[in-house]
From TrEMBL:
Coiled coil: none annotated. It comes from Pontibacillus salicampi. It holds the Pfam family Acetyltransf_1. SUPFAM superfamilies: Acyl-CoA N-acyltransferases (Nat) (SSF55729). This is GNAT family N-acetyltransferase. It comes from the Bacteria.
Length: 166
């Protein structure tokens, strides 16, 4: 049975490992190893995640995790980016556990948090241009493509911005 819950200190290692593995699985073919390693080092290190599971407010609602037999198999989180506007900042699964509905459950709980606790009526997400492991999921959830964003520091890795009413 899979339990969806708010993450705490005991999930730090699992979140780090799921995000690291999913990041390689998602971007290994399209992004340089150097870039991937830097993102993983900056965002998915234990110290940072420990801070992110202990802090929770409307700007960052904390991590939610999908846990099976004590093992983290998925992780996600988001926050508000404007009045009534939420964003999904991160959503990753153990790459061997896709298409079982786990991503849906994590997105649902994050969406519920943003609506009920923070008054969100709209939700955004950034996806790497052409990420066919992510885009069909968001489209199935009613997200619509809005615009392209070329990151100043890494103009090669274009992001697509999607949004939906919630
Ligand atoms: C994106 C992700 C979190 C989705 O989670 P998931 O558990 O695999 O998705 P679900 O099983 O809940 O699927 C939900 C819906 O999306 C659809 N879907 C998901 N991935 C799809 C794909 N690659 N192609 C077509 N449809 C897809 C499913 O058919 C399902 O539709 P339905 O509800 O109408 O039946 C997960 O696949 C993942 O970790 N992908 C790689 C990492 C990534 O790209 N993350 C997003 C970064 S922004």
């Amino acid at each position: 049975m899979i339990e969806i819950r708010k993450a705490n200190e005991s999930h730090v290692e699992g979140i780090s490992s799921v995000c690291t593995n999913a990041y390689w699985a998602t971007y290994g073919e399209t992004h340089s190893n150097e870039y991937i390693e830097r993102v993983i080092k900056d965002y998915y290190n234990h110290e940072r995640i420990l801070g992110e599971v202990t802090e929770s407010n409307c700007d960052w609602g904390g991590y939610f995790v999908a846990v099976e037999k004590g093992k983290v198999v998925g992780a996600g989180g988001g926050g508000m980016i404007d009045n009534r506007v939420g964003e999904l900042f991160v959503l990753y699964l153990d790459p061997t556990r896709r298409n079982e509905g786990i991503g849906t459950k994590l997105l649902d709980i994050i969406t519920q948090q943003q609506k009920e606790e923070c008054g969100a009526e709209e939700q955004w997400v950034s996806v790497q241009k052409g990420n066919m492991r992510g885009i069909p999921f968001y489209e199935a959830k009613g997200f619509k493509f809005q615009h392209e964003k070329v990151p100043y520091e890494n103009p090669t890795y274009i992001k697509w911005r999607y949004s939906r009413k919630i």
